[in-house]
Amino acid sequence: xxxxxxxxxxxxxxxxxxxxxxxxxxxxxxxxxxxxxxxxxxxxxxxxxxxxxxxxxxxxxxxxxxxxxxxxxxxxxxxxxxxxxxxxxxxxxxxxxxxxxxxxxxxxxxxxxxxxxxxxxxxxxxxxxxxxxxxxxxxxxxxxxxxxxxxxxxxxxxxxxxxxxxxxxxxxxxxxxxxxxxxxxxxxxxxxxxxxxxxxxxxxxxxxxxxxxxxxxxxxxxxxxxxxxxxxxxxxxxxxxxxxxxxxxxxxxxxxxxxxxxxxxxxxxxxxxxxxxxxxxxxxxxxxxxxxxxxxxxxxxxxxxxxxxxxxxxxxxxxxxxxxxxxxxxxxxxxxxxxxxxxxxxxxxxxxxxxxxxxxxxxxxxxxxxxxxxxxxxxxxxxxxxxxxxxxxxxxxxxxxxxxxxxxxxxxxxxxxxxxxxxxxxxxxxxxxxxxxxxxxxxxxxxxxxxxxxxxxxxxxxxxxxxxxxxxxxxxxxxxxxxxxxxxxxxxxxxxxxxxxxxxxxxxxxxxxxxxxxxxxxxxxxxxxxxxxxxxxxxxxxxxxxxxxxxxxxxxxxxxxxxxxxxxxxxxxxxxxxxxxxxxxxxxxxxxxxxxxxxxxxxxxxxxxxxxxxxxxxxxxxxxxxxxxxxxxxxxxxxxxxxxxxxxxxxxxxxxxxxxxxxxxxxxxxxxxxxxxxxxxxxxxxxxxxxxxxxxxxxxxxxxxxxxxxxxxxxxxxxxxxxxxxxxxxxxxxxxxxxxxxxxxxxxxxxxxxxxxxxxxxxxxxxxxxxxxxxxxxxxxxxxxxxxxxxxxxxxxxxxxxxxxxxxxxxxxxxxxxxxxxxxxxxxxxxxxxxxxxxxxxxxxxxxxxxxxxx
DNA sequence: ATAGGGTTAG
Length: 855
What we know:
The chain has 855 residues and is mainly alpha-helical. Helices cover 65% and strands 2% of the residues. The chain has 48 helices and four strands. A four-stranded mixed beta sheet has the order 1-2-4-3. The radius of gyration is 32 Å and the shape is elongated. The model is unreliable at 1-105, 544-572, 774-780 and 846-855 (pLDDT under 50).
């Protein structure tokens, strides 16, 4: 097993993997040395892609129809829904396609195949189907043929024909045991089709008819409930079978464990079932362990690793399911370097990664923000001769969209088309979000129209996405229109849609209204999640303290009021009106430039109430929550107010609180070791989460005058590469930083440059400080960061000025900066102090030759 | 009886 502290493997190097693999030179490149796993994987994949195995070497070859070998069943039987574009792959995986056929269970007669061919014409309705059945009745032989038919009908989604077939077969079957077989098959088929009520109906009838009390029907029903996420029901059936005196077998146990895994049941609970299994003398097999692994998806990656080891000790071989599930667990906790190692290990053990393996790991990289690494995995995959499927295409599409590489994104769409994979709702949603986030609203409109034209029906995610992109762009009229359409489609709103609406309110400073809407959604039975809460917490103080933000987005447009009024008149539905009112409120509120001063006080109470609700609903906070609390503290006018919020932080997390509190109160020396370990841990998260935390912590320190502390935090962030290439001698890039972090960083950078000058080096001709447009503000063109930096530079007399060509860039001649840095008073200006310092800190800070920069 | 995907917070 790979070690728990894997070496860091970079796979971002520019040259393509297959170039490494095909390199015949004995010279080892640096990249090869850094990528032992990658190379190893390639060498073994190359073997299977060799000319002796041409079928594996080209993705197109994989899709060649099986004309060469005559199929037992004609054409449509084995046609994957992938090609007909009817079902998602997720659904396909639930069907029987990949099932190994044991010679016993599926020994059906050729007549059954024949019947299937004749009855599968699109024009055959249920009645005609029954007539056909009667015609074949004499020649179809017993339950084996009928079970085969039921499964095949299930695969085609022919639910009602399956019902006809089942009734027909049961009525004509005299043996109880054979009827029992039919029943368990039918329950399984209905379960796979997601029709759990029908499954239950069949089960109950079978039990009442005296042929349903078998381990098989119970197991099938447990599985049916499991697939629908109804874990409690599954466990109920499991217990019921025991009270009926039936002894659960391996399949029963596996089914109930799988049900728990799908529903996200706690590991301890499932472990009890596992122990129960052992004590009843049922030996776990590979599938048991694979399902137990799936239970670890909640983040128990160490437990997952342990399970795999235990499998080995029990002499159970790991298969591709084992590794794919394990990888999923590892990827979900973001341990991508470990995932990379495990992938190499599976190859070494001759368990070859497949399309699921790759899409799991690719998704892990993408979620960790390592988009280039994700793209490199695609190359590796193609090189290994593994054809992309729908899931993979959608993953690659969304990566290109995230990178803003629209040309590549459209190429992915074309490639999908040429492979015969139709764009599904996931594809379209990705396109809508991708274009929308870049403000390409024309394209959004076109894509939305197109998807409806080709009858890919928008779902809740589609509407949430659209409402979100329009709201973020301030296009409330369009957002309102989308919401109207959403209601017309008769879909039920979910937590994400509501969170989007709440966010729209928050971004406009309407925190109290946001809290009201939160109560609304709770009343409607929609459970808010941590994102919903983080949104509101982070918005604290925006209305009272940041009115200029409201002004900035205002732009003088108030025409929304009339839009709202006419919209509200047309619809009487209460929820509809409420949301319409929200959009209206957004428009109206924008015209208010002044707010009550005591509003911030009210808001504080409002937020404190919010924390109560969070505890009550047992919503677990995350790092973003901590960042949000720190940001809220930054908007408090007094340390007293802030300390009320910090107390809430205390309830959530001792360590984060300890560090924040210690730095704020000047006990830096005593807390610094803990701070460093916290920083290390934060760095394990993806870069945007990490930088947001650093930004928040720095801001609150800066806000309360702990500027030296803020600077030290920022430098730790820089050392851990949180903001990516922050500085060189000629350029300081602040565009990912908050205003406090950016200011602390400017001081540090100038001191660094000063030491360059004092060492006698010449500065570059031109120096730049980039602020972008202030990513932190999230308001396009807002430039809050730019203003903060401008004020600061002016304040210390630095000779930088705005570049005329780029409004987010400050420049200065190197000679001017050199002269300024050499002036006698400059050093004093650049050294930051904390307003609060414990004696030991003061001693350190006042050493005259203190170099603040660990360069 | 087992594996992978899309929306929301910073």
